[in-house]
Amino acid sequence: MSAYYYYVTNILVVGSGGREHALGWKLSKCDGVDKVYFAPGNGGTHVNVNIPINNIDKLLKFALIHDCFTIVGPELPLELGIVNEFKKKNLKIFGPTRLATRIESSKIWSKKFMTKHNIPTAKFEIFDNYEYAMQYVQSTHHPIVIKTDGLASGKGVFICNDISKSSSVLNKMLQQKKFGNAGTKIVIEEYLHGNELSYIVLSDGDHMIPLVTSKDYKRIYDQDEGDNTGGMGSYSPANIDERIEKKLNQIMLRVIWSMKKMGRPFVGFLYAGVILHDDDPYVLEFNARMGDPECQSIMMRLNSNLYDYLNACVNKKLSIMPQLDWKQKHAVCVVLASDGYPNNYNTNETIYGLNSINDPDCFIFHAGTKKINKKFVTNGGRVLGVTGLGQNRKLAASKAYDLVNHINWKSKYNRTDIGN
User: Fold this and answer.
1) What is the DSSP letter of 247?
2) Fewer CB atoms near the end CB (10 Å): N or C, the chain?
C-alpha cells in the first residue's frame, strides 16, 4: 500500500490525447485513487466527461461535485488560467498557474527569461514586421529556425534551409496570419546541430525530481524530413552521460528558483526540449506540461505511485519523497496517424486490429479515436500510440512495430524509424 495519501480520491484528467490516456492509465493503478475521469477523453479512455478543455467553469463544477484531484494535460487550459480558478475554490490541481505557463505560452518571454538567467540557448531575434524579418533572413546564414511566439500545438516551428523556405514561412505567419494571434510576433534563431532529447522534471515550486530521459520525433517523415508535428514517436531512455545530466538538473533548478523569485512559482511537469550542441546542453524550448508522445514511453517504465508524487507537488512536499523507481527496460512509442497529418486528413475511418495485443510489455494508448456502435474510428491526426518495452531499445521497437503491423485503417500512416 502507498504511504503518502490522506484518503481515496477521484482523479480528473483534462485532455483527450495519448498523453492524457497514459497519465490516466498509470493513475488508475495507484493506491489512493478510486475513479479516473477524462474530460473530454477519447475512444480508449473509460469514464469520459463531455466537457471541452477550454470550458473552465464546467470543469471546475465537475471537480467540485465529484471531489476530484485534477491533472491538466494540454497547454491551452493552463494558458487560460485553469489552475488559478481551481485554486480559488481550494481544489487540488496539478499544473502551473497562468503566469508560470508563460514559459511555454510565449516563446519570446521564454527566450528573454533564458537570456536573463544564463540558461544556454540559441541566439535569436524578435520580429512583428514582415519587411524587417525578410531583411534579416536575407542577411543571415542558413539554416535558421522560425517560431511563432504563441501556442501552435507543436506545429509553429520551422527549420528553414534557404531564403526561399524562410520567405514562405514568414509570409504564412506575418502576412497571411495562418497562425492567428500566435504568429503576430515571431522568433528567428540560429540552428544548432546536435542530438535532441526531452528532459522533464516534477516540481513543487521549490524542489524537483527528474523523470527518466526521453526523445521524441517531431518531423512527419522518416529521417526527420517534412513538417513539424505534435510528435510521431518517442523512446526512453535517451543516451546521456552523468556530466550532461548534472548540467540539465542545474538548468532546471535555476528555472524553478528563478521563477519563484519572480513571483510565479512553477508547480507541475517542467519540460525542457534540449539539444546537445558541441557536447553541451542548450535549451530549445520549455513546456509547462508533460510531453506527448514522451509521456507514453515514460509511463510504461514507471514503477512508483504517480499519484503520491503529484499530490506531493501540490502540497509542497516533494522534498520528502524518494527518487522515482523505474523499470530497467527501454520503451518505444510509435504514433499511428491519419495520412495527411499535420495538414488535411480524413476521420471516421474504422480501426481494425486493436485486439491483437497479447504481450504484457505492450500497450495501445488512444489519442484521436472515438467509439461508435462498439467500433473504434479515427477522430484526429494522431490516432494511436503503440508502445513496447524491451531489454534494449531495438527489442522495444521490434515489439511496438510487430503490434503496429496488426493495426489498420484506410489512411493509416506511421514513421518506420522510431527507435533507430
Assistant:
1) H
2) N
Q: What is the DSSP letter of 158?
A: E
**What is the DSSP code (8-state) at residue 325?**
P
Q: Write the DSSP string, 375-396.
A: EEEE-SSEEEEEEEEESSHHHH
CB 369, CB 42: distance < 8 Å: yes
Helices (H) and strands (E) in the chain, counts: 12, 22
Q: Would you state the cell numbers that stand for residue 287, as one nine-digit string?
A: 513546456
Q: What tens digit of pLDDT does each residue of 111-157 get?
A: 999 999 999 999 999 999 999 999 999 999 999 999 999 988 778 89
CA distance to 45, 98, 344, 392, per residue, from 262 (Å): 38, 14, 42, 43
Contacts of 257 (CB under 8 A, 6+ apart): none
Cell numbers describing residue 156? 509553429
Q: Which cell is 251 given?
A: 538548468
Q: How many CB atoms lie within 10 A of CB 92?
A: 17
Against a cut of 0.70, is the pTM above it?
yes
Q: Is residue 57 classed as helix, strand or coil in its secondary structure?
A: helix
Residues 6+ positions from 308 with CB-CB distance below 8 Å: 2, 3, 4, 5, 30, 32, 321
End-to-end CA distance of the chain: 39
